[in-house]
Design goal:
By secondary structure, the chain is of the alpha/beta class. Helices cover 37% and strands 21% of the residues.
Length: 471
């Protein structure tokens, strides 16, 4: 964050100061978590679903915070700036801060692939320019403004991920970000318990492209019919990318191996060190943006070379004698379909095993989507499936109906049973893809697999000893 005077912060948010330090000191860092306070920070008291930052104001000030931004009915301490609504003030400050800079801002949204696409765009553009990207999964009403605060006058660009769990959120956050380039990766069912209908999801995703200025442009997944439905909402240039010939940028001659995706665009060959065909869309979006800002294909490829998958998102690992695809960050019908395709495309002498938790937040359509997943795993010719959760029987039952052998299907009510079954099935050279919604905690299987791998030498030693005794 670039230093900003306290008086300028007050002006940006229309706050009322109360006993502030003398001398109009500079603010160099905003913190919303009192556990991470450093001396000189401004603590912004925000209210979340499970906490209220106002409960930690005194603690933050004692730990060395320069001051705190609070709502007056909650606190009347010295070293505070009082505002009517701390979240709205946070957005106002982030917007004012962003407007100080001429950096090219790219907004990325979509049901799936936001983080991977954001990270790949950043990898490509960083080969020629200096820029920032949203850290981790900072894509909500707290994370987006925090992401913008990484900007300073040294940055040429910023890639900001924008998510939503209810109607209107993308529009609100886009008004804070003011992107000149918009990206939509894909649109599918998710958060249906909050959105209530797929039409609401479409309208919410469209809020991004509706707010891109005429002199900007949007890059859209042209293979996704839902994305194409909202393309006309754009008041700027539209670039469609995909594998189908109707797109402006088309990937041809696609080749997929375990940790490399190759393809051709026009006369140029590209490759990405990634696991899964779905990375082609992210790469095409990155290529389209790179070309639009006058990068050469060679510069773009150098940027793609630096891309590295993020843990939890098609992240390839070797654990003991097994290949593990860590896709545990989240799950919905679109991303699960991509995961099944990824597992199908893996080259191995062992089995392909899908370990899946429920896809959550699908509302009244949950059983239907899990039934479709059972069809998907059968078509992908996956060798073994272990399903965990309330919809496990729907997945396994559907897979059985569509021809998968019952002996290749496992239903587990909890992680312990799932791990026991997985340990009985696992053999050297097997590939295991682990996936599920955040609430299913599928990432906890990774350390369990590591522990199981560590036990293999002892198990083999005990087996050999017992064999000698029998002989």
């Amino acid at each position: 964050m670039q230093p900003i005077a306290v008086d300028d912060l007050i002006s940006a948010i229309g706050g009322v100061p109360n006993g502030l330090p003398a001398g109009n000191p500079d603010v160099t860092r905003i913190c919303i978590d009192s556990r991470q306070i450093q001396v000189g920070d401004v603590f912004w008291a925000l209210e979340g679903n499970n906490f209220d930052g106002h409960d930690f104001v005194e603690s933050a000030l004692k730990q060395g915070a320069l001051l705190a931004v609070v709502e007056p009915e909650s606190y009347n301490l010295e070293r505070t700036i009082q505002v009517a609504d701390t979240l709205m003030a946070f957005w106002d400050f982030a917007e004012a801060y962003r407007r100080q800079f001429d950096s090219l801002i790219i907004g990325v949204t979509g049901t799936v692939g936001k983080t991977t696409t954001r990270h790949m765009i950043h990898s490509v553009l960083s080969n020629k320019f200096r820029g920032i990207e949203s850290p981790q999964n900072y894509n909500n009403h707290f994370g987006v403004p925090l992401s913008l605060l990484q900007l300073d006058d040294r940055q040429d660009f910023g890639v900001i991920e924008i998510g939503a769990s209810q109607p209107g959120e993308i529009g609100d956050l886009t008004e804070v970000v003011h992107p000149e380039i918009g990206v939509i990766t894909a649109i599918g069912p998710c958060h249906l318990d909050e959105f209530k209908s797929f039409e609401n999801i479409l309208r919410t995703k469209a809020e991004l492209i509706e707010r891109i200025p005429k002199e900007g442009f949007v890059v859209l997944n042209g293979d996704d019919r839902n994305v194409r439905k909202i393309a006309d909402n754009a008041d700027c240039s539209v670039v469609f990318v995909g594998e189908r010939s109707r797109n402006d940028l088309v990937a041809r001659d696609i080749q997929v191996s375990n940790n490399l995706v190759k393809f051709r665009v026009d006369q140029s060959e590209f490759h990405v060190p990634a696991t899964g065909r779905h990375h082609v869309t992210s790469a095409l979006i990155s290529i389209a943006i790179g070309r639009q800002i006058d990068m050469t294909d060679s510069e773009i490829q150098n940027g793609l070379n630096s891309f590295a998958a993020i843990p939890g998102r098609s992240y390839l690992r070797k654990i003991g004698p097994w290949t593990v695809i860590d896709d545990t960050y989240n799950s919905n019908p679109v991303s699960m379909s991509a995961a099944c395709r990824t597992l199908q495309d893996m080259t191995t002498e062992g089995k392909r095993i899908l370990l899946t938790g429920d896809m959550l937040a699908l509302g009244e359509w949950s059983e239907d989507f899990h039934h479709l997943l059972g069809e998907e795993v059968t078509r992908a010719k996956i060798d073994r499936v272990i399903a965990i959760g309330s919809q496990a029987a729907s997945v396994a039952g559907s897979a059985r109906q569509h021809g998968m052998d019952a002996g290749c299907l496992g239903i587990a009510r909890d992680h312990e049973i799932a791990m026991l079954l997985l340990s009985l099935w696992l053999e050297p050279d097997d590939v295991v893809l682990v996936k599920g919604s955040r609430g299913t905690r599928m990432e906890t299987f990774l350390p369990r697999l590591e522990q199981l791998a560590e036990q293999i030498p002892q198990i083999e030693s005990n087996f050999e000893a017992s064999t000698r005794k029998v002989a």
